[in-house]
Write a structure and sequence with these properties.
Family: Belongs to the pyrroline-5-carboxylate reductase family.
Radius of gyration: 21 Å
Pfam family, one: P5CR_dimer
EC number: 1.5.1.2
CATH class of the largest domain: Alpha Beta
GO molecular function, one term: pyrroline-5-carboxylate reductase activity
Distance between the termini: 43 Å
Largest sheet: 8 strands, mixed
Number of strands: 8
Keywords: Amino-acid biosynthesis, Cytoplasm, NADP, Oxidoreductase, Proline biosynthesis
Oligomer: single chain
């Protein structure tokens, strides 16, 4: 019996699998996976993960079934296997498929939990949100929590906040990568070599984030500590304010959180 069986092995599921192997939480031989994409199958094999011949085979071999498929295919993928999933524990990272949605899709004996991770899990720096409402046993819940703690930080979140909180942590890395790229571009414009610029920008963002988490000081206080009167930093801050950095980032969260309303 494998500990976890992955149905779908896209970027996020792959990042989690790689993270829990790298952290030592589970060995690759405790995992099994299934995907219709040959590239994903090859990716699993490269990590030392066994591949299942079909979904029934995967469910039978797995203690926990990990759902990592696209939201638009969840029901078509799972409905034929509702009986196979009886008395199984499911971990789902599918956007929009929270506790209530799975309650209407699965047999009442199937225990399930919704988790919203992010891609930095691959390097053990993930931020995972676990829906507070779930149907796992206490032992199963503790296992899931410890697994995601092995690849970063975990926050247990009320159901009504999963959407917007998940937008911040799930979409946020893309926004941060854009900041890294822009900061580096600014340095390159002034003559700094590209590789050096990326390293300086990435470490600066990482260091600043860690300092805020460890000190628990308000970000504005930490910003003020860098801004000397009449100095270069406050001039840069003025440029960011003129460019509406804060409002733009707030708008990015709003747009990402409400993207479905425009469809």
């Amino acid at each position: 019996m494998k500990k976890i069986g992955f149905i779908g092995f896209g970027n996020m599921a792959g990042a989690i699998a790689q993270g829990i192997i790298t952290s030592g939480f589970l060995m690759a031989d405790n995992l099994i996976g299934y995907d219709i994409d040959k590239r994903m199958i090859d990716k699993m094999k490269s990590l030392g993960i066994e591949t299942a011949s079909d979904i029934t085979n995967l469910i039978e071999k797995s203690e926990y079934v990990f759902i990592g498929v696209k939201p638009q295919v969840v029901e078509s993928v799972l409905q034929p296997y509702v009986n196979c999933l009886k008395n199984k524990a499911i971990i789902s990272i599918v956007l929009g498929y929270d506790f209530e949605k799975y309650q209407g899709l699965l047999d009442s004996s199937t225990r399930h939990i919704f988790v919203m991770p992010n891609t930095p899990a691959r390097v053990l720096q993930g931020m995972s949100l676990i829906e507070k409402t779930h149907s796992l046993t206490e032992t199963e819940f503790n296992f899931v929590k410890k697994m995601f703690e092995s690849i970063g930080c975990v926050e247990v979140v009320p159901s009504h906040l999963m959407g917007v909180a998940g937008t911040l942590s799930g979409c946020g890395p893309a926004f941060v990568y854009m900041m890294i790229e822009a900061l580096a571009d600014g340095a390159v414009k002034e003559g700094v070599p590209r590789e050096m610029a990326y390293k300086l920008a990435s470490q600066t963002l990482q260091g600043a984030a860690r300092m805020q988490m460890q000190t628990q000081l308000h970000p504005g206080v930490l910003k003020d500590q860098v801004c000397s009167p009449g100095g270069s930093t406050i001039c840069g801050v003025e440029a960011l304010e003129k460019g509406n950095l804060r409002a733009t980032l707030m708008s990015a969260i709003f747009a990402a959180a409400h993207y479905n309303k425009g469809k």
